[in-house]
Write a structure and sequence with these properties.
By secondary structure, the chain is α+β, with helices and mostly antiparallel strands. The chain has a single domain, classed as Lipocalin (Beta Barrel). It has three helices and eight strands. Strands 1, 2, 3, 4, 5, 6, 7 and 8 form an eight-stranded antiparallel beta sheet that branches. The radius of gyration is 16 Å and the shape is globular. The chain starts with a helix and ends in a 5-residue tail after the last helix. 15% of the residues are buried.
Length: 152
């Protein structure tokens, strides 16, 4: 492995750790596990606090964190173009999902927007939503594979 590639990977790991560490102090006991990247956002789920409900249904918190300041600004701009009132100081998002492992569906239950100082800006509890089918090779598909694997 050449030096440039090594330092590139090292840089990625360090930046990811720096993004996670300040956040983890706000959620006691969280064990955030990386499960993918899309459009510059890094996706994590809280492995330690998965709630196992009846009928093969699990609830899990996820975090969507921009990998850089450039991605953060671009995400704000894209959300505004789509009609969302995304605040200028948006930092990251956490979401609570209910995943039906048998039917392979997910339902968003709650989301929290944090600012760049790790403070909650807003909380949205989603009411009256229908489950959505989980497609393979998507971020939700990756979450499904991790949350619904067989207990060992």
């Amino acid at each position: 492995m050449d030096k440039r590639r090594f330092f590139s990977r090292l840089y990625f790991v360090l930046i990811t750790c720096l993004l996670i560490l300040p956040y983890s102090k706000d959620v006691n006991g969280a064990d955030w596990i990386y499960y993918g990247k899309s459009n510059g956002l890094l996706f994590f789920y809280d492995m330690e606090n998965i709630t196992f409900l009846r009928h093969n249904i699990n609830q899990v918190w996820t975090a969507s964190i921009p990998e850089s300041e450039e991605v953060r600004v671009r995400h704000i701009q894209n959300e505004r173009k789509a009609g969302s009132a995304m605040p200028e100081n948006w930092g990251f998002l956490t979401s609570l999902y209910e995943i039906n492992c048998k039917d392979k569906t997910s339902t968003l239950l709650e989301s929290k927007i944090y600012n760049i100082n790790d403070k909650v800006i807003s909380t949205d509890t989603v009411k009256h939503t229908s489950p959505t089918h989980i497609s393979p090779q998507t971020m939700m598909g990756e979450l499904y594979k991790n949350v619904c694997r067989k207990k060992e």
